[in-house]
Amino acid sequence: MKKHNFSAGPAILPQEVIEGAAKAVLELDDIGLSLIEISHRSNEFKTIMEEACYLSLKLLGLEGKGYKALFLQGGASLQFIMTAYNLLENKAGYINSGTWSTKAIKEAKMLGEVIEVASSKDANFNYIPKGFEVPKDLDYLHLTTNNTIFGTQYKILPDTEVPLVADMSSDIFSRPFNYSKFDMFYAGAQKNMGPSGVTLVVIKESSFNKVSRVIPSMLNYEIQSNAESMFNTPPVFPVYTVLLNLRWITNNGGLDGVGAKNQKKASLIYDEIDRNPLFEGFARSVDRSNMNATFNLKNDKQAEVFDSLWNNANISGLKGHRSVGGYRASIYNALPIESVKVLVDCMQELERIA
Amino acid sequence: MKKHNFSAGPAILPQEVIEGAAKAVLELDDIGLSLIEISHRSNEFKTIMEEACYLSLKLLGLEGKGYKALFLQGGASLQFIMTAYNLLENKAGYINSGTWSTKAIKEAKMLGEVIEVASSKDANFNYIPKGFEVPKDLDYLHLTTNNTIFGTQYKILPDTEVPLVADMSSDIFSRPFNYSKFDMFYAGAQKNMGPSGVTLVVIKESSFNKVSRVIPSMLNYEIQSNAESMFNTPPVFPVYTVLLNLRWITNNGGLDGVGAKNQKKASLIYDEIDRNPLFEGFARSVDRSNMNATFNLKNDKQAEVFDSLWNNANISGLKGHRSVGGYRASIYNALPIESVKVLVDCMQELERIA
Fold first, then answer.
1. Which terminus of chain B has fewer Cβ atoms in its 10 Å neighbourhood, N or C?
2. If you count residue pairs, one on A and one on B, with CB atoms under 8 Å apart, how many are there?
3. B3, B30, B34: best to mutate for the A interface, most A CBs within 10 A
4. What is the reported pLDDT for A354?
């Protein structure tokens, strides 16, 4: 029996995407070969890569607006250093809103001057920093649109003329958003996009050639762009599975469609967290993430009973990250609202029997 | 109907590996979740990663000898710069035996002094350089054990006390070899190991901390090693498929077993190239690769007939790389000897009808 998968990532994918990916591993489109044993230079794979890039920009509303979509390896963690390699000439600003922002700052500092423009570390990152001044002399301002671990998410972007760069690993393709406000953003695939092992980078072509340093070829956005994401062998299976998922999003109303469903799921779980006297939310209400709902039991002694309730309800992946404790319900695109209802039932059942 | 897949990479994999990978995408080991939607921190995946690392070292005869096996992203191309980042302090030597060696040299030069100790560029890389002196003051000597494009392969290693580093992307796990002579070697998975999207690095633990520069975390072997290849989210599907393939190699006699079969396949195709008056080999006989047999028609006008012969025989992936032209039969571990026989039949048929 299929579990209710609340995993923070790698995360649940639509069942038709999983079935399509498995079928292609056996044989791709009746060509007599498995997806994973064809050349990446074959027409079959070139078509896959082109459609994945095209659908990415189209869904994000960035088609024909001077952006390139790249599918690279290494996850957001490699982007932390690639961002700085390609864009940090004099000084970069970072907003520190959690564990991954902190890591991005650490890596960028290896290559140049980095200032922390704002931080929510003072409250264990339970809010998104606001009301700060952004210096005008920055090469770019980096932020993390959704903080998977702490369950916070940007609703409004900082007001600045400085180029914006973002890690969108855990909320890309989950909502309509001002994507065109960014000069560059990136996202590991393993939340709303596909399996782990591939990273989407969306970058304005005007962002190439911004620095004087020599950039290793694999870390150079312009080289990767000129090679159409095939400077070397790309991760064929992850890219194909992402493509299936981008088609699924397109067929489910695009970002408006999935965004509306995600809003409903988020309301359902947050309403229960606020209503149920046994629970409390971790993140400040105004900054709550529509992707990762973090919450705690007010009384830790009820954890054993609650854990057995949701385990018996066939829920998996609900344990909170060690930095926060408690629980985290990751409610990415592919999670059905029925799974959220099962979780809410468990929370209400705890209230009844406690 | 399944094709005879002579692709240079991504390349043919054993049918049972393909079926096992497809099954796990649908559901992993009856756990109620797909392989591609489980957390990489789950016990299921930790066990997969541990077994893949263990089997790698065991098959290579390096278990308990001070080596670590790492599964990273970015392919051999990212290793070109990682090698230099981690090991190049004063001066490194490179043997230039082809396109990929040339690229490795180019990247390493960005970080320090690099000398080309020997090269076979004078003859379009149709041989492995020999009989040269290796300077004693090198941080390491880098070589490419098998040159996929040109069809050459090292049979004997250079005689030197300098630490050896190798790109083994296209012949790792294909034969018994002096793996313990190397301080470090790496290989993209997509030839003998698995699907694209993961790279094996095998490194002596004594090779950590060899340089004074600051190394970005994702490019730091010691950090990746301390994190057991999970500094960030690893490419779950490629790693799992590699594991299935390592089990297949183990169950097929290990490197002795697959090496003997590869030798038979290579003899079959090279014997025909040498016997058949219409063909000639590209690489010098003594340096011929047991993985990629490169050959040409003596008379280009016969290409059309030959191409239709092998196409009709359901062969794919036989076209030579543009740097060499002609044909390249990649005969990796998973290619059955029957496929080689079908190719030899086509060559003999051409001789009959020409």
1. N
2. 203
3. B34
4. 87
B33 interfacial to chain A (CB closer than 8 Å)? yes
Angle A303-312/A337-353 helices, nearest 10 degrees?
140
Nearest CA among B146, B44, B164, B295 for reference residue A3: B44
pTM of the complete model beyond 0.95: yes
User: What are the tens digits of pLDDT across the range B11-31?
Assistant: 999 999 999 999 999 999 999
Region B23-52: mean pLDDT is 97
Please determine, for residue A2, whether its predicted confidence score (pLDDT) is greater than 90.
no
Kindly list the residues from chain B whose CB atom is less than 8 angstroms away from the CB atom of residue A31.
3
Arch. (CATH architecture) of A254-353? Alpha-Beta Complex (3.90)
State which residue of chain B sits closest to A107, comparing Cα positions. B216
What share of chain A in percent tops pLDDT 90? 99
Strand partners, B315: B4
Provide the 8-state DSSP code for B319: B
Integer Cα distance of A259 and B145 in angstroms: 51
Give pLDDT, residue B354: 87
Q: Phi and psi dihedrals of B303, rounded to 5?
A: -60, -45
The rounded mean pLDDT for chain B is: 97
Count other C-beta atoms under 10 Å from residue B344's C-beta: 18
Residue A34 in contact with partner chain B when CB distance is under 8 A: yes
In 3D, which of A233, A268, A288 has the Cα closest to residue A340?
A: A268
How far is the CA of A135 from the CAs of A20, A115, A141, A160, B172, in angstroms? 48, 10, 9, 9, 52
User: Given a cut of 80, is residue A1 above it in pLDDT?
Assistant: no
A146 phi, psi to nearest 5 deg: -135, 130
Identity (one letter) of the amino acid at A269?
I
Partners of residue B103 in chain A, C-beta under 8 Å: 217
Which residues on B lie below 8 Å from A314 (Cβ)?
32
What digits encode the pLDDT tens for the residues B266-287? 999 999 999 999 999 999 999 9
Domain A15-251 part of CATH 3.30.2350.10: no
Q: Do domains B15-251 and B254-353 have the same CATH topology?
A: no
B201 touches chain A (CB under 8 A): no
**Minimal C-alpha gap between A131 and chain B (Å):** 32
Distance CA A273, CA A278 (A): 8
Nearest-CA neighbor of A75 among B232, B221, B237, B72? B232
Nearest CA of chain A to the CA of B136: how many Å?
A: 28
Name the residue ranges covered by the structural domains of chain A.
Answer: 15-251, 254-353
Find the catalytic residue in A139, A171, A183, A191: A191
